[in-house]
Each structure stands twice: as structure tokens, then as C-alpha cells.
Amino acid sequence: MKVGSPWPRSLNLFHDNMLAKRIIPCLDIRDGQTVKGVNFVNIVNVGDPVELGKLYAEQGADELVFLDITATHEGRKTFVELVKRIAQNLDIPFTVGGGISEIRDAEALLAAGADKISINSSAVRNPNLIDDLVRNFGSQFVVVAIDAREANNHWTVTVNGGRIPTDKELYSWAKEAEDRGAGEILFTSMNHDGTKNGFANKELAKLSEILTIPLIASGGAGSMEHFADVFTLGKADAGLAASIFHFHEIAIPDLKHYLRTKDIVIR
């Protein structure tokens, strides 16, 4: 076990997470700040990721995801230092992603205190990376994120933030990632992302039937009802969102209270 890594924390919560549905705010990080695009272009600073993370933890978030959206080699050291600060200030599990393409990248982030690492484009380009990470760190530390776009009833896996289509198909790629040892799948529907019209529940339900590992839903959250739907109709294990939390459209305590009134088991 690496010095500074709170790995037992995620191990202790692993079985709890399998039972109760999770609410996960996502923080996109650029140059050490949390940012969010408005209408996909106007990037605005939302605040300090450490302070924002602490606030969400205090409000009852179950986990957090921090994504380094400008993950260059120059920025890696900055992000590692930020992860250390986050780990020192948070008492809930958190996942970090962005630009992880080799064991060394993941090692630095886990040693800095991250509970899990998320890989996306790098896994599509080099599927063996999943096997390597699992072999080195264990399944429970490896989240495979999948961005997919639907056209003509076919879901195509994309890379580079949904901009470049690949030859991979959503369901077969998700199953392959599980077979290679991934501990969780984080599926973002590019068709739903930013619309605030609800999650891709039909596709999530199909994924949940195919997979035996936890499924995190992303893309489309706009109301508390959408979270209820994603847990019941979509059968997802966790719901992830960004702007609705950052811009105070939904408060996490209110969301959890609402879900409990719908008899949805929430931690």
C-alpha cells in the first residue's frame, strides 16, 4: 500500500455502494479550477475544487469525480498536487480521471490519495490498459468511462470528449471492459449530455442486464425526477451530474429526501 493512499476507505464502502444508490457530483478541472461550459462554449470558473468537494461531501454526496480536462504532461504534476489537497480535505471516496494512459499515471494519482481512477479514450485505444491497471491495483480501483452517441439505432463509442467516433459499439465494449476486470462502468450518453431532459434509461437498463459490475449513469440530469427514473427505469447504481449541482439548481439534501419518498434506497 502506498503512503498517503486511503485505499481501505473505498474497500470498506464497496459493499455498501453495491446496495444503496449513489449521488455523484462531477467536477471538471482546468488549471486547478472547477470549470463548466455554458451552451458548450462559454467556459466559466465554478470555484476551487477542494472547497467545492468539501461542500458536496458535507451536503451528503456519496462520492465525487474529478476530471482533469486539460491533462497534458505539463499539467499532470499540478493535478497530482491538487489530488493530494483533495484527499486531505475529503472523507468520502473520490475518482480521478483525465489523460491516464499508463501505469505510472495511475500510480501517481492513487499514491496522492485518489480512491479510484477513471480511463476513457486511452482504454479504447489500448484495451490492454484495463488489464494492466487491474493487475497492478485491483478491479475496485478501475472505472472505465464510456462516451457513446446514438445514430440509426446504433450506439457508437467515441473518444476525445465525444468528438471522434470509433469502431466500437456501446454494449460489446462495456462487456469487454468488464471481462478485462473493470470494477465499474461510467456511461455518458452524448445524445443526452447537456440537454437536462433525463438520462438514457433504456440503454442503461440494457447495460445493467449485460453487466454484473456497478453502472454509473451520466448525461441528461435536469430534475430530481430524472434521478428517480435513472434508478428505477434505468436500473443504474449511481447518478452523476455536474451543472445542476454547481449552479445550485438541485441541492443534494433535497434530492436525497425526494428519492427516499420514492422508496429508493439512498445512503
Distinctive features:
single chain; 267 residues; alpha/beta; TIM Barrel; 11 helices; globular
Would you give an account of this structure?
By secondary structure, the chain is α/β, with parallel strands linked by helices. The protein has one domain: TIM Barrel (Alpha-Beta Barrel), CATH 3.20.20.70. Helices cover 41% and strands 26% of the residues. The protein has 11 helices and 12 strands. The protein has helices spanning 7-19, 49-59, 73-89, 103-112, 121-125, 128-137, 170-179, 201-210, 224-232, 243-246, 252-261; strands at residues 22-30, 33-38, 42-47, 64-68, 94-97, 116-119, 142-151, 154-159, 164-169, 184-189, 215-218, 238-241. An 8-stranded parallel β-barrel has the order 1-4-5-6-7-10-11-12, surrounded by 7 helices. Helix 3 links the parallel strand 4 and strand 5. The model is unreliable at 1-17 (pLDDT under 50).
Note the run of SSEs as H and E. Answer: HEEEHEHEHEHHEEEHEHEHEHH
Main sheet characteristics = 8 strands, parallel, barrel
Unreliable spans are 1-17
Gyration radius (Cα, Å) is: 17 Å
Lateral strand order in the biggest sheet: 1-4-5-6-7-10-11-12
CATH architecture: Alpha-Beta Barrel
Overall morphology: globular
Number of domains: 1
CATH topology: TIM Barrel
Topology readout:
Layout: H1 7-19, E1 22-30, E2 33-38, E3 42-47, H2 49-59, E4 64-68, H3 73-89, E5 94-97, H4 103-112, E6 116-119, H5 121-125, H6 128-137, E7 142-151, E8 154-159, E9 164-169, H7 170-179, E10 184-189, H8 201-210, E11 215-218, H9 224-232, E12 238-241, H10 243-246, H11 252-261
Parallel strand pairs: 1-4, 1-12, 4-5, 5-6, 6-7, 7-10, 10-11, 11-12
Antiparallel strand pairs: 1-2, 2-3, 7-8, 8-9
